Amino acid sequence: MTNRVLRRSAAALAGAALLAAAPLATTSAEAVVAKPLPGRTYFYVPPAPDGAKEQIDRLDDAGRDRAARLVKAETTTPQAVWFTSGTPKQVRKAVRKTTDRAADKKAVPTLVVYNVPGRDCSQYSSGGAGSDAAYRDWVDGFARGLRKNQRVVVVVEPDGLTNLPADCPGAYPGQDVGTFPHPAPGTLTAGRIADIAYAGKVIRKANEKALVYLDSGHSGWKSVGDATARLRAAGVDKDQGFSLNVSNYQWTPNLSAYGTWISSCLALHPDAATTTPTDCADQNNAGPAGGTAVALDPQKSWSRTASDPTASTAEVDARYAAQLATAGVMPKAHFVLDTSRNGQGPWLPAAGTYAGDPQVWCNPPGRGLGERPKAHPAKAYPQLDAYLWIKTPGQSDGQCNRGITGSTTDPEWGGRTDPAAGAWFGRQALQLARLAEPRLLPKK
After folding, report:
1. Rounded to the nearest 5°, which phi and psi values hold at 210?
2. Is residue 316 within 8 Å of 264, Cβ to Cβ?
3. What phi, psi does 130 have (nearest 5°)?
4. Number of continuous H segments (helices) and E segments (strands) in the chain
5. Which of 284, 179, 153 is nearest to 222 (CA)?
6. Helix segments in 64-210, DSSP class H
7. Which candidate, 346, 340, 437, 434, places its Cα nearest to that of 110?
8. Most buried residue among 23, 37, 187, 398 by CB atoms closer than 10 A?
């Protein structure tokens, strides 16, 4: 997935301070009805991914018992099930099979809808339905596979809004990609936004207990105002909220703050679908209002109490608290975080290592599993519904080449050709488990 760039800390205080300053009021335009999961929610554990069992068996046969148990513990942690292709009938059957299994275990499944036309800007995870009409038929099939009144989490189209066709026109030669904001009807960008809005609508209609989250990239990518405009254009006000960090590695404190800021910006700007907010503070402008702009460093773990101005969220939090109090509104959109692979934070190679794009989002070395899935993980962030493992840890991001023209190999993994996107990457799976933070404790 293109541009996919928890340590507990005092950063958690930021969300509480931001919300405490604002009165309990709402606007009619902000229609999100919060219905988050209970704190002791048991999330569904799907069958192990293809390739995982074979790796565990090989490690056992080689006498590497602890390594085998680590990978097994990784694959038996609750994680999402992705639906990426097939006919409407096939996806209906696949969704029903998963939801039936989850119901049998009295568990809440996390389902990922990932089949929008032209997905991933034609890069490693490219593909998707052949047209908007085909996609809507497919989503209808997905929705028919849901059980009535079953608690499910549904993440809709990772990167679908953050990587609109307008963001990568070169991936769609000869086609009218349109612009954002204000994509003209009939353009690919207008179609993409409408497709995602449609997915949310039919899923909610099929199962009123489904918690639908439209994906919105991560804290090292779009500005808060831009993310807000895209989410609002896709009708996030009718859904439970949005997801962050799917298949990426950003620090959990950074994502928690960023998600809270987006939720606040959504509350302040019910017109964001037509007018992109310009007064929503964010990671690119973290200084005091009217003062010198300070950009937060995504390589650092942010907090409200950090003395380093490139890691401090204090000024941004204070600005939102004041704006919310003045407007008399409260944030209502909720969000979830993908913590499957962010235990060691994002990767950045040493300066000068690569002349081209180092692909920091693509199978970066030295990463670890993050916080285990949990509902309501941080009281200081009331809009944060859950930590989830949305990306399947151990599955490759793609055949990375670090921007080296003509190369098909990855120097960060010994000059080998990485497995294709979605295929099992055993070396990475074991490294993620070994470097997990918090530590992964395998059963004996």
Report:
1. -70, 135
2. no
3. -75, -15
4. 10, 8
5. 284
6. 65-75, 88-104, 132-144, 188-206
7. 340
8. 398
pTM of the predicted model over 0.90: yes
Residue with tokens 């293109």: 2
- Per residue in 274-307, pLDDT (tens digit) is 999 999 999 998 877 777 789 999 999 999 999 9
Which three-class secondary structure state does DSSP give residue 410? strand
How far is the C-alpha of 260 from the C-alpha of 63, rounded, in Å? 47
Cα–Cα distance measured from residue 74 to residue 396, given in angstroms and rounded to the nearest whole number = 15
Q: How far apart are CA 46 and CA 81, in angstroms?
A: 7
Alpha carbons 9 and 156: distance in angstroms, whole number: 30
Q: Is 156 helix (H, G, I), strand (E, B) or coil?
A: strand
| pLDDT higher than threshold 80 for residue 1 | no
Q: Which residues contact 129 (CB under 8 A, 6 or more apart)?
A: 115, 116, 117, 135, 138
Residues paired with residue 113 on neighbouring β-strands, in sequence order? 83, 156
For residue range 358-377, what is the model confidence (pLDDT) as tens digits? 999 999 999 999 999 999 99
Q: What integer pLDDT is reported at residue 18 of this predicted model? A: 45
DSSP strand pairing (210-215 vs 241-244): parallel
Q: Confirm if 162 and 222 have CB atoms less than 8 A apart.
A: yes
**Could you tell me which residues are beta bridge partners of residue 214?**
156, 242
Q: What is the pLDDT of residues 55-106, one digit of tens each?
A: 999 999 999 999 999 999 999 999 999 999 999 999 999 999 999 999 999 9
Say how far apart CA 343 and CA 6 lie, in whole Å.
6
